[in-house]
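name: query_chain
kind: protein
chains: 1
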Amino acid sequence: MKLLNYQVVFAKPPGVNGAPAEDNFRYESCEYPADPPPGHVLVQNLYLSVDPAQRCQMNESTGAEYLLPWQLGQAIPGLGGVGKVLSSNDDGFSTGDIVMSGFFEWPWKLYFTIEADKIMKVDERLVGKRLSLPISCLGLVGLTALFGITERSQLRSLPTDGSIRRTLVVSGAAGACGHIAGQIGRLEGADRVVGICGSDTKCQFLTTQAGFDAAINYRSEDVSARLAELCPDGVHSYFDNVGGPISDAVIAQMAPGSAVVLCGQISAYNTDAPYPPPLRPEVQRLVDERGIVRERFLVLEYQDRFADGVARLARWLAAGAIKVFETEEDGLENAGKAFCSMMSGGNIGKQIVKVSDA
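structure:
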């Protein structure tokens, strides 16, 4: 009996400065993989990671040396996922192992063959039955939040004598990385954590479930006025996921010697602007005059500490010190829909796609 396989391909580009649409993706049948050659394993896809940075891959130039452009008519390579080994031709893996992507290679296919050195075993003792955790809290998303806060936010260097309220602001706060970063910021010494997001529902989520002190709906509120109200001592650390006018408003409220953790710039991903996009001259002057540290942050700089980072995140998660939220879309055929929804702010927490059952 011939086994069926399916994939999602890059059907057409969105155009320069265009928002992605579902017809940029095509779901189709494809060949079932042959038996894995030496050093390879055959994987059944369980979960796909859907990430804002993938919008850059829809452009001819991604703006990042570690991201390759998608090829028209080809299966989308993906940035991460979780799967189950169906057959192995490598001594490091056995049939039934639960595995995750290593770095930036996880095809949008139901079944695929992959080189063994591009995947890692999932420690099922850490994730339990929640197999999606390696692409949310216990993967690059959680590690980005962790190292962004612990290594770049400067929260630990601020006075602890009560002379100021150490204030962390997070934009894109209800998203995959933002809601974790805010919680870690609290653990790392922030006295006040303020989130910026795009709906009242998300604001309520942040303050009632994710432990933020306050939240600002940038669609319906005056961000500058609300920041002035909520951050009377200024903003000491800004975890920036969005860029653009929202970030301009935050920078205007930042204290001298404060720090911007430049995690993402989703406001620019639908454009062909360089990454990170330059600030407007008047905003750059503020950064210079106040000695604000604003440098590009890439979690891959901390690869040698990933294992320790995952262990730390797992301890916090098990102890209830952090909570992880996900928005799940069911079915590989809906991966494009999930991507477009995420890019328009439809997700709370990490956007994932459940491809199949283990």
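note: The mean pLDDT is 92.
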